[in-house]
Automatic annotation (TrEMBL):
Native species: Streptomyces virginiae
Chief location bin: membrane
Domain of life of the native organism: Bacteria
Sequence ranges assigned to domain ABC transporter substrate-binding protein PnrA-like in this UniProt record: 49-338
Protein's UniProt name: BMP family ABC transporter substrate-binding protein
InterPro entries: BMP_lipoprotein (IPR050957), Peripla_BP_I (IPR028082), PnrA-like (IPR003760)
Pfam families in alphabetical order: Bmp (PF02608)
Amino acid sequence: MRRITRIATVGIASAALALSATACGGKKSSDASSSPSESGQKSAAIAYDIGGRGDQSFNDAAYAGLKKAETDLKIKTSEAEPTDGEGEADKVQRLTELARKGNNPVIGVGFAYAPAIKKVAPKFPDTTFGIIDDTSVTGPNIANLVFNEEQGSYLAGVAAAKVSKTGTVGFIGGVEVPLIKKFEAGFTQGVKDTNPNAKVLSAYLTQPPNFDGFAKPDLGKAAAQGQLDAGGADVVYAAAGLAGSGAIEAASAKGKWAIGVDSDQYNQAGLAKYKDSILTSVTKDVEDSVFNLIKSVEDGKPTTGEIRYGLDKDGVGLADSNPKYKEMADVIAAVEKAKADIIAKKINVKTAP
């Protein structure tokens, strides 16, 4: 089943509703009225990763970039949602339809789109295809939007080690794949460099080809409860997309700290009731990466090849929205020093545990 939605005016409240719908196992969308080629207007499109829009994390960051392009560049935008249990053929069909409708660029949100983009991009040489978090598929009309997640996660490890009172912290990965291992590696190194005696509990929710670990909050909640109760952790960092919201809920219920991911989760409407427990978030500037690619196409100079975002370009970082975090002068000082040392290459952050 394929679903494509043209954005009209959608705010954060709609994203919150989408979160609820996803948690219940279903989503609704409306059909696009007319294609960009039919209307003569320019349009850009994104195809969401597992969890879809409303995950308060990765997909919502991509949506923010699309919405910014719609507002600032005065273009039409289209979205395509994933379906439960879909395969590569579904992704191929989704990207093909978006390209046929005249969208340019067409952006796949997440590494899972790599095989589909490899098949579809050569058939539309005049369309720029973007893929986030993947460098395995390349081509003259493909832009690889990638991030140094390990660097941002290192900073989270520094913060976690500084605030932990038990000396034990937890890491939860959605699915055990190389991308998520970058988060674990950086986080663990940051913790250990700050407190060599600290203990890091690591858990993955699912193994490929099961990607439910990015989509089901109950899995994240159960894993976090185990680390908090049996493991004695008092800080939990989850890199698990929508499933990470369950880990945040569990930490909040225990009066412990959670560290968010991808978006500044302290400011996500769907997580408002847990926000006092969100110490900080490891941010990835997915929003600007999406907007910048769309703008490059609109300017007539489409960017292709690897486009990397690291600490040196503020492409990854650590959010400071929580007022409690802003009061932690010693934590902030340690994080800022670590950031400077990484940028200066005094610290080499590992990309594998």
